[in-house]
């Protein structure tokens, strides 16, 4: 299980780094801008989580995560020119890369918070923070309304579902790899539903 969590974490960092780098490309930023924007979603949420939990910040403990994020920035920089002719395709790639990163990170964040605190409530909260905070930093630096704040976006909701599914399965004693895959899939399905079919939360009647 620890190995799979590490793989999820590294894949999430790489995918979120690409999503940040793609956002920088879309804004016409140079190499420095691409690197900065790739790091924000890749390490931002996990950094905030570790600070709140009073744990060593994960990318300071081991710099491999920074190297993975920089690799994502480099890959995007080298191949961005192939996307110049397809602005719509670039936005589509950014959207789905972000969805994958969200699904991975909310589960990784929930697992770490639960292992530290033993609290399901805190695990869900930190799962959401890990999933959405980095993307918020990316969007703010791009001078855009963060996805989590946009009307009709089930973004934080998807992270909540993923982290919640992890905690529910933990509560009922369903551990191991099945828990990780189920929780991650739940988060991704909810986010995909928002992207493809416009799923939204109900609004208050007034």
Name a few traits of the molecule.
mainly alpha; 206 residues; 8 helices; globular
What does this structure look like?
The chain is mainly α. The protein has one domain. It contains 8 helices and no strands. It has helices at 2-26, 31-52, 58-61, 64-79, 87-117, 120-141, 156-171, 177-197. Helix 1 (2-26) runs antiparallel to helix 5 and helix 2 packs antiparallel against helix 6 (120-141). The longest helix is centred in the middle third of the chain and has 31 residues, at 87-117. The radius of gyration is 16 Å and the shape is globular. The mean pLDDT is 90.
Give the count of helical stretches.
Answer: 8
Structural shape: globular
Query: What's the overall average pLDDT, rounded?
Result: 90
Q: Structural class from helices and strands?
A: mainly alpha
Largest sheet: none
Name the helicity range.
over 70%
Question: What's the total number of strands?
Answer: 0
State the end-to-end distance.
47 Å
Radius of gyration using CA atoms only: 16 Å
Order of helices and strands: HHHHHHHH
Number of domains: 1
- Beta-strand content bin: under 5%
């Amino acid at each position: 299980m620890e190995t799979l969590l590490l793989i999820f974490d590294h894949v999430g960092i790489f995918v979120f780094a690409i999503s940040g780098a793609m956002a920088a490309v879309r804004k016409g930023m140079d190499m420095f801008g691409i690197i900065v924007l790739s790091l924000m979603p890749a390490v931002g949420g996990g950094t905030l989580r570790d600070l709140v939990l009073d744990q060593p910040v994960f990318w300071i403990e081991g710099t491999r995560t920074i190297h993975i994020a920089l690799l994502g920035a480099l890959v995007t920089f080298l191949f961005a020119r192939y996307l110049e002719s397809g602005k719509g395709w670039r936005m589509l790639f950014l959207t789905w890369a972000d969805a994958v990163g969200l699904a991975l990170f909310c589960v990784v964040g929930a697992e770490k918070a639960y292992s530290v605190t033993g609290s399901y409530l805190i695990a869900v909260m930190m799962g959401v923070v890990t999933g959405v905070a980095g993307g918020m930093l990316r969007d703010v630096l791009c001078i855009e309304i963060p996805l989590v704040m946009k009307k009709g976006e089930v973004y934080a909701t998807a992270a909540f579902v993923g982290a919640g599914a992890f905690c529910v399965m933990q509560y009922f004693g369903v551990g191991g790899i099945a828990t990780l895959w189920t929780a991650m899939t739940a988060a991704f399905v909810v986010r995909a539903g928002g992207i493809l079919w416009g799923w939204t939360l109900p609004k208050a009647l007034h």
